[in-house]
Amino acid sequence: MSFVPLNDVLADALAGGYGVPAFNIVNDLSAEAVLEAAAEERSPVILQTSVKTVRMYGRKKLYTILAGLAEDASVPVVLHLDHCPEREVISDCLQGGWTSVLFDAHELDGAENLRQTIEVVAEARAVGASVEGEIEGIQGVEDGIGSDEASAMQSLEVSVDFVERTGVDCFAPAIGNAHGQYRSAPVLDHQKVSDLLAATGVPMALHGGTGLSAEQFQDLVARGCAKVNISTALKEVFLRSSLASLQRSEESGKWDPITFFRDQKEAVTTMARDHMRIFGSVGRVR
């Protein structure tokens, strides 16, 4: 199965009241684990790549790896470029097979963000891809992009105008969420999601998901967050499982790379499966 556009899976999710999990994979093994969980749970899934990961592998090589893993997928798979402020990287990935991009231009002034996002949407449409947009920065640094300083909040009217004039397929609002681990329980503006959906009809994307409770996830999904990002949780289970596996090798004196890889994969698969169940995406693919 080839990669599908983001709007293909979000339309069904919004209508069905569930969230499609979007995992920021870090290598081939983590991608394989996410795809395995999606197949087992019959869930659509979004493979997200950061600009950092694209540069680490090189766009062409990364696409070849991920397309090969997804080739036999029995569920819809989106290939998404996460938080990218650089137009040349956006263009390269769109031409290279990505079916969705997040053009992160929140640091530009409103008029320039609007102008360039309209251009990105046209560029994506030309290759059958989707675009996620944002005008408020999500607090926190992720893969070298972002800031720990809170971004200026925009009014509902400004956000709605941006969505309508750009034609983005998905919108990422700032609702008190943050990338990374929360230092304290976040106070989220759940109503903002409801208001944006009611005014635009466009699916919302929830960023900064790691650390939210199942109840928070489910309420936000019910309000219109049809795309739910998970990045920090994947990285943490990947590295913590690696550490535990290495410690077991040290204690036993048995250094088996295959066991090491298996431990990493099992941890990521379990994490992905757990989130799919919370988001209600299990069993949505027949």
From TrEMBL:
Cofactor: Zn(2+)
Signal peptide: none
Cross-referenced Gene3D superfamilies: Aldolase class I
One Pfam family matching this protein: F_bP_aldolase
Protein's name in the database: Class II fructose-1,6-bisphosphate aldolase
Native source organism of the sequence: Microlunatus spumicola
